[in-house]
């Protein structure tokens, strides 16, 4: 499954098939702050936190402004 199709989408909007395929992968969500009020959407996805941070940097984003979490299976 192409992980790039998940970029820009909220984790809650992933289909069961996508959620199952991406289970255990690391996703990056922008850290909430009252100053930024970010939309909750996947900004990067990778097999590890390091890979996810690298994907953020490749897009010109600062990994320190994102929380990296492991995507849980749908059930």
Low-confidence stretches: none
Strand content: 15-25%
Mean pLDDT figure: 94
- Helix/sheet category: alpha+beta
Q: Termini distance?
A: 19 Å
The tally of helices reads 2
Shape: globular
Rg of Cα set:
12 Å
The share of residues in helices is 10-25%
Number of domains: 1
Q: Could you describe the largest sheet, including whether it forms a barrel?
A: 3 strands, antiparallel
* Strand order across the largest sheet: 2-1-3
Task: Explain how this protein is built.
The structure is a single chain. With 75 residues, this protein is of the alpha+beta class. The chain has two helices and three strands, in the order H-E-E-H-E. It has a three-stranded antiparallel beta sheet with strand order 2-1-3, covered by helices on one side. The relative contact order is 0.25.
Q: Which tags fit this structure?
A:
75 residues; alpha+beta; 23% helix; globular
